[in-house]
Design a protein that fits this description.
With 266 residues, the protein is α+β, with helices and mostly antiparallel strands. It has 2 domains: 131 residues, no CATH class; 94 residues, no CATH class. The chain is built from 6 helices and 9 strands, in the order αββαββαβαββββαα. The strands form 3 sheets. It has a 5-stranded mixed β-sheet. Strands 6-7 form a two-stranded antiparallel ribbon. It has a two-stranded antiparallel sheet with strand order 8-9. Strand 4, helix 3 and strand 5 form a beta-alpha-beta unit. Helix 2 crosses helix 3. The chain starts with 16 loop residues before the first helix and ends with a helix.
């Protein structure tokens, strides 16, 4: 099995098919290893009771890597991946070690689409990312590339607008995409706003402009700009309705159903 030690200048080594398949044994997603830096030597278990030691994911804690990752290092890693035309799905900072071990190495964990990187290219990219860490004086941190599939979970799509004579037009209207939809943040249930207008970026991503003091808790001291730069970053959830508006909307549906029931009976 692999040992947890890692040096500051350790470079990638070729990965066997068996190591690629079982390197992350124990992780729920069981990803396939593509490339990694470090002096760890992976060995296949042998003997009559041979078994793979399971690994686990851990948080990065107060490692020095945490302070520079969101500041600039993540952008530099992304630049390397874009320059090499890598079809990457995620970049994370984490720790992965054997269950029961007290000390586990910190690492940059890069996810790529399956069968999109050759062995030579993956080793080159891992080496370049490792050299970037050393240049930023981030030592004893590994770089690992794995196959990864990223699925974005989104809420149901908004309904299409209907004519006013449609039987449920009034009920559907709040669920469509007109100007002024109600929106709120679950962490601030007492605040609500209406959406302003829609804009798109260079990638045709659609955004709704709304009031900042509804999405974020008002704070005169830490009024910092927020930008979601990578998928694993903590997201700020925005809902279509606030708690009060949702309650009123459900009551409106019940009244409409009750009215239709009376119509049917008579």
């Amino acid at each position: 099995m692999a040992s947890p030690k890692s040096t500051t200048t350790s470079l990638p080594h070729p990965i066997s098919d068996l190591e690629a398949k079982h390197y992350y044994y124990g992780l729920y997603s069981t990803p396939v290893l593509v490339a990694c830096t470090g002096d760890d030597i992976w060995e296949q278990p042998t003997g009559p009771e041979a078994y793979f030691r399971p690994k686990e994911l851990r948080t990065i804690g107060n490692h020095p890597l945490k302070g520079v990752w969101e500041d600039k290092l993540d952008f530099q890693i992304h630049d390397i991946l874009k320059c090499k035309r890598v079809e990457w799905t995620s970049t994370d900072v984490t720790q992965i070690g054997f269950i029961g071990e007290c000390v586990t190495p910190a690492l940059i964990w890069i996810g790529v689409k399956a069968n999109t990187l050759s062995c030579e290219d993956s080793l080159t990219i891992a080496k370049e990312c490792k050299q970037l860490l050393v240049a930023n004086k981030i030592l004893n941190v590994k770089v690992e590339i794995r196959e990864s599939i990223m699925t974005r979970y989104i809420s149901p799509k908004l309904q299409k607008s209907v004519h006013s004579f449609y039987p449920s037009a009034q009920l559907l209207d709040p669920l469509t995409s007109p100007l002024g939809p109600f929106n709120g943040n679950p962490s601030t249930p007492g605040a609500e706003s209406t959406g302003g207008f829609y804009i798109t970026d260079d990638n045709s991503q659609l955004y709704l402009v709304t009031a900042r003091d509804v999405v974020f808790k008002p704070d005169l001291v830490n009024n910092n700009r927020y930008k979601c730069r990578f998928f694993s970053q903590l997201h700020v959830n925005v809902t279509l309705f606030s708690t009060a508006t949702f309650t009123n909307y459900v009551a409106q549906i019940k009244r409409a159903i009750e009215g239709e029931r009376i119509t049917v009976e008579f």
